[in-house]
Write a structure and sequence with these properties.
The structure is a single chain. The chain is mainly α. It contains five helices and no strands. The longest helix has 28 residues, at 74-101. The radius of gyration is 16 Å and the shape is elongated.
């Protein structure tokens, strides 16, 4: 793996893991919505709970884009779709970084800036998803990397 690819992979792990690992503050939980809406939010969050460090941004984007809405509330679903778009941007940025590393592309500063923006968007959009989930009283699932005896090869 080239140095640029390694840097992008490390940046994704550093951006995704700390945000997902932050505990939801109990005071922020409102328990609004119906039980069905809370259940749908929990289902989506569980399906989204991937080990981003063992997947490429394209794999993450593909897997989370395939999660069906079901009866999730509009505010949550809209925020979640923004998060999916952020992962797609990260996948595009990774492809550009790979082209840059392979000598197929110039403009390294622009490509690096796009990659930085994509990683920031992942963090920002996930924070909003997390905030809305908390407003429904839905806790975040434990990130795979924090689960005891976690083996990324079995995910």
């Amino acid at each position: 793996m080239s140095m640029l690819r390694q840097l992008l992979a490390l940046a994704i792990v550093l951006v995704a893991a700390p945000v997902a690992a932050e505990p939801v503050v109990a005071a922020a939980q409102e328990n609004r919505g119906t039980e069905e809406e809370r259940s749908e939010i929990a289902r989506i969050l569980e399906a989204d709970n991937l080990d981003a460090g063992s997947l490429t941004p394209r794999e993450v984007a593909s897997q989370i884009a395939a999660i069906p809405r079901g009866r999730a509330p509009e505010d949550f679903w809209s925020a979640y779709q923004e998060h999916v778009r952020a992962w797609r941007l990260a996948a595009e940025a990774q492809a550009k970084l790979e082209d840059l590393a392979d000598g197929k592309r110039g403009g390294s500063e622009q490509v690096m800036a796009e990659a930085d923006e994509a990683l920031a968007a992942i963090e920002t959009t996930f924070s909003e998803v997390e905030r809305i989930a908390a407003s429904y009283g839905v806790p975040m699932p434990t990130p795979p990397a924090l689960i005891e005896n976690f083996d990324p090869d079995t995910v």
